[in-house]
Amino acid sequence: MSTHRELKKITTNTLQKMKANGEKISMITAYDFSFARIFDAAGVDVILVGDSASNVMAGHETTLPITLDQIIYHASSVIRGVNRSLVVVDLPFGSYQSNSKEALASAIRIMKETGAHAVKLEGGEEVVESARRILAAGVPVMGHLGLTPQSIYKFGTYTVRAREEAEAEKLKNDAKLLEQEGCFAVVLEKIPATLAKEVSESVQIPTIGIGAGRYCDGQVLVMHDMLGINTEFKPRFLRQYLNLHDEITSAVKQYIDDVKSRDFPNENEQY
């Protein structure tokens, strides 16, 4: 008799149950096969193929330049490394905002060409028609409210959002609206913890926080920030779990020294 236990895949339904049972959801970004395989095997619940690839993989200042083709390349690489995690893919800037037909076409391309499980889009009321059309086609949608990095030029700054009453009210309404339309979860980015608590309690769908405090139903961090590959970015909400930047630097320096001093390769490292 096989003792092999079937690996329980995380689905949008699993996340709903986790919220109902008070179990927190872990989410991290990944952009390639190797890291996705490590994160999946470590047991992370959700992997986000973020448009943050524009910053951390391509070196752009904002998330705006990444294209649909590029996000599809990253997402299909990630999917090949995943057995269990739910994989969510960001719809890039300009691929869904103004035209719900285009939004649907973008989402369908992502699902067909990558094998991913869901898409994410930024905004509330402004993008509800796009979300509705994607959902009607059977594609799961995760929302994203608060600091929406694709709107950085509108905000002009990456500071905390929804401190003012009007913006906080809109955010609460947007979260309810996304839930009503059928979104399975919503990311809350850089908003006051008390507001995030209020929103999390007012909707049945899970909230995933980034800089939104401890009352969200889950948390997400960018892998390069969390692992200390990128060391320039030090917001208050970031907990750095490793300092890979320094570890990699010293390993590479050691390698260079060993090559220069003829220490590498040695007798045992040749054929």
What does this structure look like?
The protein has helices spanning 12-20, 33-42, 53-56, 68-79, 100-114, 128-136, 152-155, 165-181, 193-202, 223-226, 244-260, and strands at residues 25-29, 46-49, 86-90, 118-120, 141-146, 185-189, 207-210, 218-221. Strands 1-2-3-4-5-6-7-8 form an eight-stranded parallel β-barrel, surrounded by seven helices. The protein has two domains: 12-240, Phosphoenolpyruvate-binding domains (TIM Barrel, Alpha-Beta Barrel), CATH 3.20.20; 244-271. It is built from eleven helices and eight strands. The chain is α/β, with parallel strands linked by helices and 271 residues long. Strand 1, helix 2 (33-42) and strand 2 form a beta-alpha-beta unit.
Number-wise, the strands total 8
Low-confidence stretches: none
Morphology call: globular
Give the class from helix and strand content and strand pairing: alpha/beta
The proportion of strand residues reads 5-15%
How many distinct domains?
2
- Assigned CATH architecture of the largest domain: Alpha-Beta Barrel
Average pLDDT taken over every residue: 96
Strand count, sense and barrel status of the largest sheet are:
8 strands, parallel, barrel
Individual helix count: 11
CATH topology of the largest domain: TIM Barrel
Measured between the Cα atoms of the first and last residue, the distance is 44 Å
- What pattern of helices and strands is seen along the backbone? HEHEHHEHEHEHHEHEEHH
What is the class of the largest domain in the CATH system?
A: Alpha Beta
